[in-house]
Amino acid sequence: MAQPWLKFYPRDWRGDQALRSVSVAARGLWIECLCIMHEAKPYGHLMLNGNPVEDGVLARMAGIPVDEVSALLAELRQAGVFSVTGRGVIFSRRMTNDHARACKGRKAIKKRWSQVSGDVEQSDAPNRSPIRSPSTQKPEARSQRPPKSPKGDDGGFEAFYAAYPRHEGKGHASRAYKTALGKASAEILLAAAQRFRERRVGEDPKFTPLPASWLNGERWTDEPTAANSQPASFQNTDERGWRDRIRAFQDKGMWHPKFGPKPGEPGCKCPAEILDDGKEAA
User: Fold this and answer.
1) Which of 97, 114, 145 is the last residue of a domain?
2) 163 with 89, same domain?
3) Can you name the residues that pair with 83 across neighbouring β-strands?
4) Cα separation of 15 and 84, whole Å?
5) What pLDDT digit, counting tens, does each position of 251-265 carry?
6) Where are the alpha helices (DSSP H) in 115-201?
7) Percent of all residues in the chain with a pLDDT value above 70, rounded to a whole number
8) 75 and 43: one domain?
9) What is the pTM of this model?
10) Hey, is 204 helix, strand or coil?
11) Which of 13, 45, 129, 235 makes the best surface tag, with the fewest CB within 10 Å?
């Protein structure tokens, strides 16, 4: 006689990736199948009175059209929710495995506590076999979580943060860094941050993106080419470039050593006519 109750673990049900991939209607039909299989022989198989339950019978038992039952069963089978025997009988892997363990446990208990007949004498010695707590099958998604990093291991974030040219929003940067580690190694991120720091030398800090924004935008992939290894302001030698530098020098006193001597100093590389225009504008 079947048990009047059925083992059901809501967390395992909701964590099963195969079930999560099918429709709500398919999951509802699978619940109906589980109830039938709980009362079937052999246990866990979709059978009724020793015969496989066909789509038409299942449709009447579930109260839905036959074509809908066929479509939902196809959806469940494609997702790998159930298995099929060589005779084409649907069965639940979870139910059959649990039932096999339960039968094995009952036999062990019966052997341990029942009177031993025949030529085997009953032993009064205590049984020292360990009693294991019942185990439940875990969905594959929960059993394959990546191992946690050792305590204190930041994955190289502190080195990255120290190398990045702007130190703001460290909490957001830490979370973005963990996400970025799934796309690039710590060495790549650190090297890219160091190169980016060099490229930002002499540039206005307010135009440097926050570290979290830089990471979320995958900016480590924006590596300059060999012909463009320096910022545009260092390469630009045309008239407009020099005028921008002179304007920045007059407004903010900003002048990078790579531009050469400052305006007014011997050896200044800025064209004389641009220097004269800058003096008049000042």
Assistant:
1) 97
2) no
3) 91
4) 22
5) 877 777 777 888 888
6) 140-143, 157-163, 170-180, 186-199
7) 78
8) yes
9) 0.39
10) coil
11) 129
List b or e across 186-225, with b for residues whose CB sees 16 or more CB atoms inside 10 angstroms.
Answer: beebbbbbbebeebbeeeeeeebbbbbebbbeebbeeeee
Neighbours of 58 (CB within 10 A): 23
CB within 8 A of 101, min separation 6: which ones? none
Q: Which domain holds residue 17?
A: 10-97
Q: State the amino acid at position 22 in one-letter form.
A: V
Q: Is the pLDDT at 90 greater than 70, yes or no?
A: yes
The pLDDT of residue 164 is above 70: yes
| 83 lies in some domain | yes
Tell me the C-alpha distance between 26 and 73, whole Å. Answer: 7
Residues 86 and 14 in one domain: yes
**Per-residue pLDDT band at 5 (split at 50, 70, 90):** confident
Q: How many CB atoms lie within 10 A of CB 16?
A: 21
Please give the C-alpha separations between residue 151 and each of 154, 162, 177, in angstroms, as whole numbers.
Answer: 8, 21, 17
Cα 274 from Cα 224, distance rounded (Å):
30
Q: Are residues 174 and 198 in the same domain?
A: yes
Any idea which residue has 């924004």 for tokens?
Answer: 213
Residue that the structure tokens 């100093």 belong to: 265
pLDDT at 89 over 90: yes
In this prediction, residue 136 carries a pLDDT of 59
The answer to whether position 133 is within a domain reads no
Q: Are residues 26 and 62 in the same domain?
A: yes
Q: Considering its fold, how many domains does the chain have in total?
A: 3
Mean pLDDT (the chain, rounded): 80
What is the per-residue pLDDT for 127? 56
